[in-house]
Prior knowledge:
Helix content: 10-25%
Distance between the termini: 36 Å
Oligomer: single chain
Strand order of the largest sheet: 3-4-9-8
Amino acid sequence: MNILQLNPWNWFKHEQGSEAAQIPVQKNTTEKNVATGNETFHPMMRLHREIDRLFDDVFSGFGFPNLGTNSLLDNVRAVAYQPQINVSGGNNNYEIELEVPGLTEKDLSVEVQGDILLIKGEKQESEETKDKQFYRVERRYGKFQRTLALPQDANADDITAELKNGVLKLAIARKSVEQRDIKKIAIH
């Protein structure tokens, strides 16, 4: 195995609002507490949930309905439709999986511009009838664009895409990259 293939790469450095300074390497955001076996969340998420609970308690005292899980963070997420993505790689290729339930090939576009991979799509809102009153709508609609920076060893000419069961899978072949000349620095 080539040791250079193990170098981390920040795929998301071109996306606005992403954690460009961080390379996401964790698979799960929750952990199991060894003693109790219960899930524990990141401290900021626990703080967010506790603040939501406090607001629910205060407003319910004035007769307002409980906000429940519809927190401010959930409302912000509902405005922007951004499909979840997994990026992985092996010796021969990189694999990208994007959750796009309800979308067809016509709704999606995959483009390469230089060393940038653009995945665009639009989820249309279904027609609503005038005789229905909606009490809650949780389905998300809108346009999205994921912008991924391709690593140096990604072969932009050898990318395949497949849409199956609401998951868009991209396979990007890896190519060998010339090693740069090593320059020895003398120590005086």
